[in-house]
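ARCHIVE CARD
CATEGORY: sequence design from structure
SOURCE FIELD: tokenized fold
FIELD CONTENT:
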């Protein structure tokens, strides 16, 4: 007997054999037994996957990791990160120094092969900050397509303090000069109004202030700083330098001004002063650069001042814009592995998921910061993916994917397991790298430890969440996605055996948009 079956959708993707007899399973009529080298479109139908285009061979066919770099929607790059080097790809081709010799643009890095997949990064404009607990924080700068710099970040204010601070008491030697007045000053940057670290202290000899007459004062002078719009002057009072005024030029007169101890001179801080103190992860949140998890303090976090990405200075008493540091307190030592910036600051640790929030949602030095656990699944070291207002992360074991989003009714973050109905695609293997192609079909490409590739179409608003599997005549090892034209394009490192020789190639997935089919 012949039966005619109509299937209107494949929105559930491929499902595991345990579900074949589950007639009560609502997704079974919109799922499939096997979908190979195809993907679920965000409308629910299935399309075949486009082929892979050769881009270039990795350096010496060695192991490499792909990292995306997006300056804007028109200028996007793929970084080939290998053993102590970076190379660069743009628009499907390797950037070379000479079109005749085809020598690749390459810069030296300190990162060894074993560190590549433990690098965490965050980008702002044409600067990529890179963290790893074994190295200082580095900054990759794009000066042009052919000119890139990688430098260790110096964590201090960008503007320097004035030099040659000196002063003189107006009465000189004509009256008693048995007391010292200590001063220091700071520079204020013209564009950002960032305040420098403290200048050297100048000690000026004079009479006791209560004996000063109306025409007595101390005049201060210093060498002005290029790029400074003004200078703040501070005077010592019982070991605390309080604010006494602001100067436009290189002079200031103290005519018996009492220091304001509610506005004190900045205190220099650099939490990353040596081995054991380097952060393992980073991100940007509310105009701050936020880091976390050093070898010495795996549950601690450090953020810069508001509006600066290098300045960890604080004041006493604290100002709201000062740098912030805090530690998550829990029973087990679960290291902070990822920082996600949404409306709230989310920390993903090896043992749980935490929301970090302050008074009225502000993340500041004067707010009462609270670290509240949201769930206790834990994540691994593969960076999470943000889709809309949802976080997708891989559990610590590497073979379970979960999402996490804010729920209004419970005022907390909650989610579900996304791999449970396709668990056969993850048995005895782990996700080692993944990337998100938002357009046109909202596909997550997940590279597995056995060299296969899985894809997840993730559109929860339309109830489309389907996994499919992919293979090639070789082994997938890394993936990254960048925007090129109207599409988010996946790039892969693929290991292939050519005439008995192992080769590694960077390959780009072709577009399925065909303008002129012949």
């Amino acid at each position: 007997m012949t039966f005619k079956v109509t299937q209107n959708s494949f929105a559930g993707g491929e499902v595991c054999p345990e579900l074949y007899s589950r007639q009560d399973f609502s997704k079974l009529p919109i799922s499939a037994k096997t979908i190979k080298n195809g993907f679920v479109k965000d409308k629910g139908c299935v399309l075949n996957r486009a082929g892979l285009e050769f881009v270039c061979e990795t350096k010496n066919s060695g192991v490499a990791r792909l990292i995306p770099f997006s300056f804007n929607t028109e200028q996007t790059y793929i970084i080939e990160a290998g053993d102590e080097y970076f190379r660069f790809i743009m628009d499907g081709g390797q950037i070379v120094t000479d079109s005749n010799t085809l020598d690749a643009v390459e810069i030296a890095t300190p990162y060894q092969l074993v560190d590549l997949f433990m690098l965490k990064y965050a980008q702002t404009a044409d600067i990529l900050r890179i963290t790893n607990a074994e190295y200082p924080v580095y900054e990759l700068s794009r000066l042009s397509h052919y000119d890139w710099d990688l430098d260790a970040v110096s964590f201090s204010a960008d503007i320097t303090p004035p030099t040659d601070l000196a002063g003189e008491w107006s009465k000189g030697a004509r009256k008693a000069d048995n007391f010292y007045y200590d001063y220091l000053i700071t520079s204020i940057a013209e564009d950002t109004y960032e305040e420098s670290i403290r200048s050297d202290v100048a000690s000026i000899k004079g009479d006791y202030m209560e004996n000063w007459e109306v025409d007595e004062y101390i005049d201060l002078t210093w060498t002005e700083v290029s790029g400074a719009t003004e200078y703040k002057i501070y005077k010592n009072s019982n070991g605390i330098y309080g604010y006494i005024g602001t100067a436009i030029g290189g002079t200031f007169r103290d005519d018996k001004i009492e220091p304001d101890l509610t506005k004190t001179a900045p205190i220099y801080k650099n939490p990353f002063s040596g081995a054991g103190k380097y952060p393992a992860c980073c991100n940007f949140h509310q105009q701050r650069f936020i880091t976390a998890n050093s070898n010495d303090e795996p549950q601690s976090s450090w953020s810069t001042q508001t509006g600066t990405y290098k300045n960890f200075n604080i004041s006493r008493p604290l100002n709201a814009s000062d740098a912030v540091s805090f530690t998550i307190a829990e029973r087990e030592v679960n290291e902070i592995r990822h920082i996600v910036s949404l409306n709230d600051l989310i920390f993903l640790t090896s043992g749980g998921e935490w929301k970090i929030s302050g008074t009225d949602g502000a993340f500041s030095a004067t707010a009462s910061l609270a670290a509240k656990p949201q769930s206790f699944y834990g994540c691994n070291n593969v960076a999470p993916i943000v889709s809309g207002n949802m976080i997708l992360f891989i559990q610590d074991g590497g073979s379970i994917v979960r999402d996490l989003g804010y729920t209004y009714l419970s005022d907390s973050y909650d989610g579900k397991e996304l791999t449970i109905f396709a668990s056969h695609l993850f048995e005895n293997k782990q996700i080692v790298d993944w990337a998100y192609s938002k357009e046109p079909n909202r596909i997550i490409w997940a590279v597995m430890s056995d060299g296969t590739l899985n894809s997840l179409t993730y559109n929860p608003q339309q109830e489309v969440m389907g996994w499919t599997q992919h293979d090639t005549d070789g082994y997938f090892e890394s993936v990254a996605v960048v925007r090129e034209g109207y599409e988010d394009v996946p790039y892969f490192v693929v290991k292939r055996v050519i005439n008995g020789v192992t080769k590694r190639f960077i390959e780009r997935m072709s577009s399925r948009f065909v303008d002129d089919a012949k």
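CARD ANNOTATION: The mean pLDDT is 92. The CA atoms of residues 183 and 235 lie 5 Å apart.
SHELF: design records, drawer C
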